[in-house]
């Protein structure tokens, strides 16, 4: 109503420790389950890729916006649909939010987390030359058919999945636009990023370097 576009909101809970499921259940009680759609993934291995695949089964729009449910990506990005406007300007297949270009930025992270994110993006730029400035962020708009095709091609799990999506998109000749965004660290809950995820990211990066 506020943005001037018709859209639906689908919440996918993939076992995150940030309390997504509890908050979504509260919203369902307030607005009704016909307005707030939540689906839980029951799986031994959780990943952002699994959430994408699960969400696609329920999404009905021609364009799909992916964003974090902990509000690190502010809802203003939907109310003032910067990604959708960018898509229209250049007729892009993908519009990716970037924390490292223009007036984009990160707020609330400690130095360690900033170094990890910056380091991951720097190494990726050097090895893969992806043509996008933020490879590990997850605020993106996709054409529905493009997202479907990329999910069929991508094999990575966890945090490296976001990176592979952009790399595969370049391989397939899809166009990518970028919009600066501000990422604010979550107020409640905790991140799933840990040592195992970092090791998996590095393994995935080397795999992409060797195969692309």
TrEMBL record:
Keyword set includes RNA-binding: no
Name of the protein described by the UniProt record: Dolichol-phosphate mannosyltransferase subunit 1
Protein family (similarity comment): Belongs to the glycosyltransferase 2 family.
Subunit structure as annotated in this protein's UniProt entry: Component of the dolichol-phosphate mannose (DPM) synthase complex.
GO molecular function, one term: dolichyl-phosphate beta-D-mannosyltransferase activity
Residue ranges occupied by any Glycosyltransferase 2-like domain in the UniProt entry: 4-150
PANTHER family: DOLICHOL-PHOSPHATE MANNOSYLTRANSFERASE SUBUNIT 1
Cofactor: Ca(2+); Mn(2+); Mg(2+)
Pathway annotation from the record: Protein modification; protein glycosylation
Location within or outside the cell: Endoplasmic reticulum
A single cellular component GO annotation: endoplasmic reticulum membrane
Organism the protein comes from: Grus americana
SUPFAM superfamilies assigned: Nucleotide-diphospho-sugar transferases
Role, per record: Transfers mannose from GDP-mannose to dolichol monophosphate to form dolichol phosphate mannose (Dol-P-Man) which is the mannosyl donor in pathways leading to N-glycosylation, glycosyl phosphatidylinositol membrane anchoring, and O-mannosylation of proteins; catalytic subunit of the dolichol-phosphate mannose (DPM) synthase complex.
Annotated InterPro entries: DPM1-like, Glyco_trans_2-like, Nucleotide-diphossugar_trans
Pfam families: Glycos_transf_2 (PF00535)
Main location as per UniProt: endoplasmic reticulum
An individual GO BP term: GPI anchor biosynthetic process
